[in-house]
Structure formats: C-alpha cells, structure tokens
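LAB NOTEBOOK - FOLDING QUEUE
OPERATOR: T.R.
BATCH SIZE: 2
PURPOSE: Compare the predicted structure-token outputs for two unrelated chains run back to back under identical settings.
PRIORITY: normal
REVIEWER: second-year student, initials M.K.

ITEM 1
FIELD SEQUENCE / FIELD STRUCTURE:
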Amino acid sequence: MMYATTPPAPVFGLRREIDRLFEDAFRLGHAGRGEWSPSVDVRETDEELIFAVEIPGIAQKDVEVTTENGVLTVRGQRLEDLKEGEEARYHLAERTYGTFVRRFQLPQGVDSEKILADVADGMLHVRVHKAALPLPKQVPITAAADAHKHIPVAIEAGKSRPQTAAKATANGNSTKSAR
C-alpha cells in the first residue's frame, strides 16, 4: 500500500528537498540518532519575556529548563515509539525522535531568579520576568558661583579652609595665592 502526500509546487518542492537532505546529513547525533529542534515563539510584554516551545508527545519529566550566565537553555528528548512486529509494520514514519537543545541569550534587565515554566497541551511556556530597572535621576545643575557648595573638601587639623576664587578676588588676593 502506498501513501502519498500532496505534491508541492515544483520549484519550492525541490528547494525543500535539498534543504531537508542537508539538514538530515548534518544533524545526526550519537549512534545515528537524529537531533531535532522544536519550534519556538518568543514574545515580550511590559512585565516579561514568554518563550512558547512546541513539545507534543514529550513527557514533562523528559524536559529540562535551566539558566546560566544569561543563557536560557531548554533541552529534552522525544523517545522513539516505533515498534514493528508480526502484527504491524510501518509504511510511513515522519515524526522525529531524539534529543533537542535550544539556547537563548537573555537580554539585560531580566530577573533570572523569577523564571517560571509550565506545560499544557504540548506547549512549554517559559516566563522570564523583567527586573525592576532603576528610575532615571535628575542631576541638579548649579551656577559656577555656587559650585564650591557641592565639592567636598577635606580639612586637615590646623589648616584653614581654602578660599574660592570669588572670595579671593574680593579680598584682593589672586587665585594662585588662595590655593
């Protein structure tokens, strides 16, 4: 018995087949087992980054989410359930099995201590909360005559406080002699 899929457009079908051949040739892992990569959507809200990872048919115990040095890693394994016996044999097997690893560089300003992950209906959702960023601070601008008020001066015992340029000129001293 032959199973056929809908034939793709000639040009795009050829391109897809060439891409598939290269992917298959370079993704073989240990002992001929292929690695695969689940599809991921990443979106951002004001409060968090949300990673939605497609993992249908994978048990929760077979998925791991870690973060280290600003990199979020999602790894897991889809176990092969192909079993041929006397009663049945496969005519078509298109699903991919094996291990996968997806890594994402997290941006600055996220709180790596507040990462949550949950799985439902074949989707793993990883929520990375943004850290509270420091609020902008207005720096006061002072006039040059008031600048001495904002400069910390260390006074040693027995020495007088240095005069500012404005006071030295008013007393008839030059700026050099005030220092």
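ITEM 2
FIELD SEQUENCE / FIELD STRUCTURE:
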Amino acid sequence: MAIFKENIDVVNPEGSDANDSRKSEITFYGFLSTDESLNEAFSGIGDTIYTDADNTPGTALNDATFGGTYELHTTPTYTVEIDSVGATDTFKYSKDNFVTTIASGVSLTTSPITLDTGVTITFGAITGHGLGDQWQMTVISSTSEAHELAKFVASHEGTGTDHKSSMSLSINTDGYPSDAIFSGSGLNDLTFGGRYNNNNKELIRQGYYVKIDSTGNPNTFAWSKDNFVTTESTGVNITGSAQTLEHGVTVTFAATTGHTLNDVWTSFVYDDNIKIFSNNLVKFSGDVVQANGNLVSFRVYDADGNILNTA
C-alpha cells in the first residue's frame, strides 16, 4: 500500500490546445473471483476445485484449500484425494492425476500440510470426508488481464489557447447501455438493451444513435456510432422485438409504425457518469444537472432504478 503524506501531482508533458488534449488518467483495476489475479500469479496458487467422489448430496465435506507459495516455474496440477477414512482421515497426492503418486496415507491435520515446492493444503476437519473425494489446483504463472473499475480523467476543454479543462468520472457498467435519450417530437417508444460484449474490461465510451429514416409500414431506422457522420446501416425494418445493432447491444421499438421521420434516440456504453466543465456545468450520465448555478434537469430514481419524475 502506498502512503502519500501530502500531495499527489499528475503532470501531462504534452503541449497542445486541441480539444481533449493534455489528458491525464487515474484508473482503478480489479479482478473477478474467477480470474487469475495478481495474488494467484505472485503465489502461483490457483483456485481449489472440489470433486465429491460419490456425488451424494448432503454427505460431502468440502473443507480443503491449497495455499503457500509455489517455488518453481512449471505449472503442474496438484490432486489431493482421500485414501482412507476413520478417526483421522488420510490422503494421497499426485501431480499427474495419479499416473504416479508422490505420497499416500498422509494424516489430516487442521494446520497447513506441506506437499512440495512450497505448496500446502489445509483441511477444516480431520475426519468426516468421503473416500475418493478430491481437491485439485493448477499452478498459475501469469495473470488474467484486470478490468477497469473506474477512471478519473482530466483534459483541456475546447480548442483555445487557455487553461480551461474538464474532469470526468467513469464507472464500469459491465457493458450495459445507458437509458435512451430522445430527440424529436413523435412517438418515443425505443429502449436500448443487451450488453456490449466486444470489450467489457476497458471503459471505452461508445455511442449509439438510432434515427427513423422512413415512415412506411413498417417504419424503418438507420443507426450510427458517431451521430451520423458515418452510418452503419439504413432502412432497417422495425419488428417490435429486440433487434441487435452490434456486439450484443439491442434496440426495441414498442410499435412498428407511427414514428416521426428523423426522430433520434441516443445511448452510450461506458458513458462518463459525472463530467464537470470549466463553466461549472455538471452532467450525470448525459443529464444536465447544473449550469451556472441553475437547475436544468434532474431525474429521481427509486431503489429499483425506476424514474420517479420526468423533469
């Protein structure tokens, strides 16, 4: 753990007046419980996997965990198996699934028992296990790529030769798109759904824009990722069911007709949760909350995520 007694200074060496230049980021990373984490890579000890020998519900005692620090650079799989049961159960173990057995008849204790090369196994009880019950662990020599949990970003705002800046906070939404922002005057019945699955580890902001491009029967839509500087697809028939745009992101219209030409819905994956601009304007996930001290737009949600107001 790093301890800073006074200040943390982050300096960007770039000299530029371009919008979003002089960017500095502070990123927080984490691992899933199923990932090969830094702790596992440093110790070499992977997850403990249990196999109940007779697969009888209610009789299994899964109380063993591998530990220690592996001392070599190979990646064997350790298998520990109960080879006798009694007042004190015993086990045998192998590193090649019992093509060869390294030791057998080892009495259980509730203290860490060293197998070899720094690897230990610890049982919660010395008796009550099933004959043939197994615990396996594959040694880990590298780590899974950590995912971004949250990110602070500070950068220059605008294109002027000045010191204006903006700061944003992004939080990992696990790839779920934000609520639709509607721009138009017609039927507002589109919802974004699905889950962005191209890369849900990095907080890379991606916008999706859907526009009604014909009002026949059914109506059709076009969609873009850059507000129609370029268009990904046009003339897509509205079906009334979930329709995939890309990478797991979907749109669903409640009706297939009745929309107004050129009405647009927008959603973002990994949008800035909070963004503060140099003129004190504050945005929360696309909603303007404050501009020069005046309340512009504010949404109130209940504990289940339902909007309680429409202001």
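REVIEWER COMMENT (ITEM 2): DSSP finds one helix and 23 strands in the chain.
FOLLOW-UP: none requested
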